[in-house]
Amino acid sequence: MNFFTNFQSFLLTIILLLPFVYCQNIPNPRSQQTSSLIGNRFYFFSGDLSTTDYYNNSAANITNEVWYLDLSSSFNTATPPWNKDIEMPIGYILSASCVSPIDNSVFLIGGLTFIPNTAKINLGSSPVYVFNSTISLWTTPNIIGFNSSFKMRNGIQPVIDNYEKIYTFDTTSMTWSTLAISANAPPSLSSYTATLLPTGIIVYIGGTKTRSDNTEEPVSMYEIQTFNTKNYNWSTKVAGGDNIGTRAYHSAILTQNGDIIIYGGAMWNDSTIPATPYIAKLNTSSWMWSIPNLSQINSPQLSYHSAALYGDYMIIAFGQIPSKISRSFISLNNNLYILDIKSYTWVT
Ligand SMILES: *[C@@H]1O[C@H](CO)[C@@H](O)[C@H](O)[C@H]1NC(C)=O
Ligand SMILES: *[C@@H]1O[C@H](CO)[C@@H](O)[C@H](O)[C@H]1NC(C)=O
Ligand SMILES: *[C@@H]1O[C@H](CO)[C@@H](O)[C@H](O)[C@H]1NC(C)=O
Ligand SMILES: *[C@@H]1O[C@H](CO)[C@@H](O)[C@H](O)[C@H]1NC(C)=O
Ligand SMILES: *[C@@H]1O[C@H](CO)[C@@H](O)[C@H](O)[C@H]1NC(C)=O
Ligand SMILES: *[C@@H]1O[C@H](CO)[C@@H](O)[C@H](O)[C@H]1NC(C)=O
Ligand SMILES: *[C@@H]1O[C@H](CO)[C@@H](O)[C@H](O)[C@H]1NC(C)=O
Ligand SMILES: *[C@@H]1O[C@H](CO)[C@@H](O)[C@H](O)[C@H]1NC(C)=O
C-alpha cells in the first residue's frame, strides 16, 4: 500500500467521520417513545428506531437513548436545540412518564422493557424507573405492593396528581394499591390519552376498548370516561359538537383555559389511515368538541408521536407518518412541529 492509498483512505475516513460527528447531535427518527416536559426541557425517553417492525415484532430496535430539547431560548424548528442525556438502563416503549410536581423527578411506569438496541423483551426488569434530570441519574426503586396479580401492562397512560400519586401508585411511598371500585368502571382500554384536569378529574380520550367476547372496538369520541381522583368515582361524559373520528396513538394536551387539544393518531385497526380531523378541541366544562380553523394542507399528520404544551406552543416530535406507511415500511419522523394554539398557526 503506497502513501497515496493511505492518504486516500485517510481522506475517506475524514469524509465518513464528518457527517457522523454532525449527526450525533440529531436524534434518529423514532416512534413510541415516552416524553415529558421538565421545566424548560422537553425530554424523550427510548423509542423504536425500526422502520420495518409493524408486522414483524422481531424487527424492532428499541433504543435506550434519552434526548431533550432545550426550550429556554428561541430557536428555528429546522435546527432544534437537541441535547443527548444519559441513556436509560433498558429500552422502553408503549407507556408514559409522569413528572413529580413536587421535585421534578420522572417516573416511567408500565410499558414494555427491552435489551437496548434489540427486539428482545427484558423480562427481569423493574416495573418502575425513576430519573433525576438534575444529575442525569436513573434509579429503580424497591416497590411495595407489587405482586403477580398486578398484570404488567402496556399501551397505558398514567397521570400524576399534586400529591405525587400516579393512578394508582404512590411515589412518596413507592406503593401500589389496587382500588376496589367497580361502580361505572369502564372496560379495559388501550392506546387512549389521559389528561388530569385541575379539578382532579382524569379524562380518557379515544383508544380501543375490549368487548366482553375479548374482541376490540374503537372508543367513541362522544362517550368520554372520566375518573374523579378526589372521590374515586368513574363516570361517562356524553360529548357533543363537531364530528370527530375515532382514533388511537394520538396525543392530548391541556390548555390554560381548560380545553383539551388532541392531535394526530391513526385508525385503531389500520395504522396507515390518519385520524380525521387530525386536530380537535374539547371544552371540558361543556364537553363540546370543536375543530379549530387551521389549514389542513401543509400540516403534519403523525401517530405514536410526542406532544407537550410550552406556553402557547404545542410542540410535536417524532412518531410515525400514517399516510406513508406500507406493509413493509414504517415512515418515521424526526422533524419538530410547533403549533401556536392562540392563532392555530404552525410556526417555525
Ligand atoms: C422479521 O425481522 C427479523 C429481524 O430483522 C428478520 O430476521 C426476519 O426475517 C423478519 N421476518 C419476516 C417475515 O420478514
Ligand atoms: C436529584 O439529585 C440532586 C443531587 O443529589 C438532589 O439534590 C435532588 O433532590 C434530586 N432530585 C430528585 C428529584 O430526586
Ligand atoms: C438499531 O439502531 C442503531 C442506531 O441506528 C444501530 O446502530 C443498530 O445496529 C440497530 N440494531 C439493530 C438490531 O438493527
Ligand atoms: C396482590 O395485591 C392485591 C391488591 O393489593 C391483593 O388484594 C392480593 O391479595 C395480593 N396477592 C398476593 C398473592 O399477594
Ligand atoms: C359518581 O358518578 C355517577 C355517574 O357516573 C353519579 O351519578 C354520582 O352522583 C357520582 N357520585 C359522586 C359521589 O360524585
Ligand atoms: C376497522 O374498523 C372499522 C370500524 O371502526 C371498520 O369499519 C373497518 O372495516 C375496519 N378495518 C379493518 C381493516 O379491519
Ligand atoms: C367552555 O364552554 C363553556 C360553556 O359553554 C364556556 O362558558 C367557556 O367559555 C368554554 N371554554 C372555552 C375555553 O372556550
Ligand atoms: C378560517 O381560516 C381561513 C383562512 O385563514 C379564513 O379565510 C376563514 O375566514 C376562517 N374561518 C373562520 C370561521 O374563522
From TrEMBL:
Under SUPFAM superfamilies, the record lists: Kelch motif
UniProt entry tagged with the keyword Signal: yes
Question: Could you confirm whether the keyword Signal appears in this record?
Answer: yes
The signal peptide annotation in the UniProt record is 1-23
Q: Which intervals hold domain Attractin/MKLN-like beta-propeller?
A: 165-347
InterPro entries in alphabetical order:
Beta-prop_ATRN-MKLN-like, Kelch-typ_b-propeller
Keywords annotated in UniProt: Kelch repeat, Repeat, Signal
- Name listed for the protein in its UniProt record: Galactose oxidase
